[in-house]
Amino acid sequence: MQLSFVIIDDTELDHFIALKMIRNANKKFRVKSFIDATHALEQITAGDIDKDAKVILVFLDIYMPLMNGFEFVEEFEKLDEAIQNKYYVVALTSSWQISDINRVNSYRSFKKMITKPMKADELSSLINKVTIEYSIHL
């Protein structure tokens, strides 16, 4: 599969919802989940997420303890450009505060912002956009 997913969120319920939505879109999609953004960043840096994927769509909660989504992206943007180009980072949040929207938009790595819980039509639209942008055939 040329498209896989990473879920980085500190809430088990949000993991469950995102995983269910992804599985409903396509049962063959590979998904890795992380409660701790630091651990996810370590695996991304080491190249241990999905070597076969052309692009990895990351759903990143922006407000988490330890390392929040903004801190994650700051470190992610320091990685080699070849690594960064393999990831399509989507900010997940329950907030629609203008300050959060502006902060998300200030990082080049955030490609989109979605409010929790994710909806099926949002995921479908996002998958379509990514497959077209990266010339992926599902």
Q: How would you portray this structure in words?
A:
The chain is α/β, with parallel strands linked by helices and 138 residues long. It has a single domain (3-133), classed as Rossmann fold. Helices cover 42% and strands 22% of the residues. The chain contains 6 helices and 5 strands; from the N terminus they run βαβαβααβαβα. It has helices at residues 12-25, 37-46, 69-76, 81-84, 98-105, 120-133, and strands at residues 3-8, 30-34, 55-61, 87-93, 110-115. It has a 5-stranded parallel beta sheet with strand order 2-1-3-4-5, sandwiched between helices. Helix 1 links the parallel strand 1 and strand 2. Helix 2 runs parallel beside helix 3. It is globular and about 35 Å long.
Give the gist of this structure:
This protein has helices at 12-25, 37-46, 69-76, 81-84, 98-105, 120-133, and strands at residues 3-8, 30-34, 55-61, 87-93, 110-115. By secondary structure, the chain is an alpha/beta fold. A 5-stranded parallel beta sheet has the order 2-1-3-4-5, sandwiched between helices.
Find the count of extended strands (DSSP E, 2+ residues): 5
Instruction: Let me know the average pLDDT.
Output: 94
Count of individual domains: 1
Proportion of strand residues = 15-25%
Please tell me what the overall shape is.
Answer: globular
CATH homologous superfamily classification: Response regulator
Top-tier CATH class: Alpha Beta
**Can you count the helices?**
6
Unreliable segments (pLDDT under 50, ≥5 consecutive)? none
